[in-house]
Amino acid sequence: MSIHFGVAYYPEHWPRERWETDAKLMQEMGVQVVRMAEFSWFKMEPQEGLFQFEWLEEAVALLNQYGIKTILGTPTAAPPAWMIEKNPEIQPIDHHGRRRYFGGRHHNCHSNKAYRVHIKRFVTAYAQRFAENPGVIGWQIDNELGNSHEDLCMCGSCRLQFQRWLAVKYRTIEALNDAWGTAFWSQGYHRFSQIIPPLITAAGENPSALLDWKCYCSDLIVNFAKWQADIIREYCPNQFITHNYMGFNQKVNYYDLGTLLDFVSNDSYPAGYWQKTPHQPDSEIAASYDVVRGYKKKPFWMMEQQAGIAGWEYMARAPKPGQMAAWAMQSVAHGADSILFFRWRTCAMGTEQFWHGILGHSGNPGRTYQEAKTLIQTFAPYMDEFEGAMPNPQVAIVHSFRQNYAFDIQPNHPELRYVEHLNKYYKALYEKKIPVDFVQGMDDLTNYKLVIAPLQYLMNPRLEQHYMEYVKNGGHLVLTMRTGVKDETNLCMTDMELPGRLGELCGIEIPEYDCLLGKKGGILYGKKEYVIEKWCDIITLQGASLIAEYSTSFYKQSPAITEHMYGEGVAWYVGTEPGKELMEDLMAYFAKASDIETLGAAADGVEMMTRESDDKVWLFVINHTRDEQVYHLHDRYTLLEGEKEEFLNPYEIQLHVKTKHKKG
Ligand code: GAL
Ligand code: ZN
Fold first, then answer.
1. pLDDT tens string 344-356
2. Residues 333/620, Cβ–Cβ less than 8 Å
């Protein structure tokens, strides 16, 4: 039986005498793996060069006796005080030029040389020590790289590295001056050594410089991870390497980071205390798992799956009975092969005292423990069967870190957020029970019947060509507002009307536009008027036909959404951000015109998703609501798990299977 369930465990927070009780309780619950030690540098190296791994070896061995394997974390997100005392320059500098000090976590610069030396010494000893340990199956590098690093680090070391990165990219300072448009506001440089990280300015910033900075920061983090991955690979060829991602978080390009890893892991807190609603909308959670699966086009692990109430200074809502299990199986439905709950036991100390685990502070098994146990007993056997199986969507949404960066730098409309915008398209499909893959623009798109490429703001000739060929060969493509505005260096393109060469593909030109600042607009689609938001491209038809027209402002009756046959396929252009209702109706039209199958029908809050092996399709139906629900499937499946066909109790998870028809 493979490994499917586990927990994050911190034996160092508890007396040694408790460990065996924990191991027993874990075993009874069905825990097969723990992640440990990702913040325990001080405990493992209390003085420079003095390694004390015995306590960890003891914990690993004890757990192993109970059949529980270990993933070890490298503790590089928390350099200890003695190290900071010796090398205070390790502490990062924020964009105000202020130091961020010891006392929390992530107080480390990623480029600092002294820090790299400490890491090399420690990770080498750590990897050597556990390479042959029968209890250890793999490694997690650092922890949530990019978390808490929004504007870090801008120290002297990072400045130098940034200059070098730019010199490699541009070769000459003239090329950089052109690419950054430094003719504006007297920003020209004579030498790379004059360039600084984007520290706080008196007024305004250069969008091209900022884009390079964000890409540089991502490269630096990947390089930081590689520094460790290389060591672990050398000494531990039989153990895997992974890292815990944060869904759509954009600080580090997760596609790039993924090249270092055997598989990607993810952390998810649907009811995190920072969420605007009691819990994150189901569609957003689902989308974040689909993008995580897309980073390596492979099943992934959930390294941290929310177990209980989430809290730091204040707390969020308690997961309702059954809700934690529904969230966990949602991860599985979207491609997770293993789920580790965060954390085993609620911590008595430190920042995360109120971050609740499987066990409460008291350490007594309660409701959460029972729910996790039931979940594992019910689903672990099936997970053995469909391990490695992938969803097989007919629809793809294009995702890009660079586009995300460009919109972080200039949202165009104050409320436009790249990921939120993608999520609006996703949600309409999700609610129609249509599975989705996230892909990169240059990926092979031929297997998708419908590709939605929102906000293709930064454009280049290769990507234009790629989209045009996809449609020419029969693909259905949706392009949207703010497409083709900028080149790869974040300068506005000037040689054609918007949307550049893709105008030929869409059969349109966009000579004018309107930013809907502080108001919503209207559109006429079919016979109905709908609300639109944020943006209006005022389109001129150049061969396309009109699908919807504006019903407000001076461009009333101008085309807003268009359709164009191109080669064997169709290109749609959506010149605005559709409001919820329009989005639903429009996506219904696109899906129908592209011949997309939906899995079934049910109310919002009932999720459907599939994973496929060579000969079988597993279908998950999950009730994310606290009400009973009914649903209908569009194909014949056998119910494997669940009380009643086409009926769901609150938070119930049902699993179905069908055998694939053999081709030919
Ligand atoms: C995650 C992090 C964990 C823990 C958890 C709860 O972001 O990886 O180490 O901090 O949140 O706050
Ligand atoms: Zn730095």
1. 999 999 999 999 9
2. yes
Neighbours of 636 (CB within 10 A): 7
- pLDDT at 273 (0 to 100): 83
- Ligand 1 atom closest to 147 (CA): 7
Integer Cα distance of 265 and 246 in angstroms: 9
Say if CB 394 and CB 15 are below 8 A apart. Answer: no
Residue 519 burial (CB count, 10 A): 9
C-beta separation of 400 from 452 below 8 A: no
Q: How far, rounded to the nearest angstrom, does the alpha carbon of residue 52 sit from its chain's CA centroid?
A: 35
What pLDDT band is residue 664 in, cutting at 50, 70 and 90? very low
Q: What is the mean pLDDT of the chain?
A: 97
DSSP 90: G
Ligand 1 atom nearest the C-alpha of 269 is 11
Interval between CA 307 and ligand 1 midpoint (Å):
12
pLDDT of 303 over the 80 cut = yes
Collapse the DSSP code of 155 into the 3-class scheme (helix H, G, I; strand E, B; otherwise coil) and give the result: coil
Q: Which band of pLDDT confidence, cut at 50, 70 and 90, is reported for residue 279?
A: confident
3-state DSSP call for residue 508?
strand
CA 363, chain centre distance (Å): 32
Distance CA 217, CA 559 (A): 41
Residue among 304, 340, 351 whose CB has most ligand 1 atoms within 8 A, to mutate: 304
**Amino acid found at 290:** D
Distance (Å) of CA 485 to CA 114, 178, 498, 512, 550? 42, 17, 7, 12, 22
Round to whole Å and give the CA distance between 317 and 286.
20
Q: What is the 3-state secondary structure (H, E, C) of 568-580?
A: CEEEEEECEEECH
The pLDDT of residue 260 is 98
In the 8-state DSSP scheme, what is residue 387? T
How many C-beta neighbours within 10 Å does residue 33 have?
24
C-alpha span between 217 and 147 (Å, rounded): 13
Whole-model pTM?
0.98
**Catalytic residue from among 284, 304, 464, 652:** 304
What is the pLDDT averaged over residues 209-227?
98
Share of the chain above pLDDT 90, in %: 97
Give the percent of the chain with pLDDT over 70: 99
- Starting at the edge strand found earlier in the chain, the sheet holding 69-73 runs 240-242, 136-140, 69-73, 33-36, 5-8, 336-342, 300-306, 265-268, 244-245
Beta bridge partners of 546: 562
Name 208's Cβ contacts closer than 8 Å, sequence gap at least 6: 179, 180, 181, 489, 490, 491
Residue 38 in contact with ligand 1 by CB distance below 6 A:
no
- Beta-carbon contacts of 54 under 8 Å, excluding residues fewer than 6 positions away, are none
Verify whether ligand 1 is closer than 6 Å to residue 304 (CB atom): yes
Note the pLDDT tens digit of each residue in 259-278.
999 999 999 999 988 877 88
Q: Which long-range contacts (CB under 8 A, 24 or more apart) does 288-291 make?
A: 288/247, 288/248, 289/247, 289/330, 289/331, 289/334, 289/335, 289/336, 290/334, 290/335, 290/391, 290/426, 290/436, 290/437, 290/438, 291/247, 291/248, 291/399, 291/438
Which residues are 563's β-sheet partners? 545, 572
pLDDT category at 663 given cuts 50, 70, 90 is: low
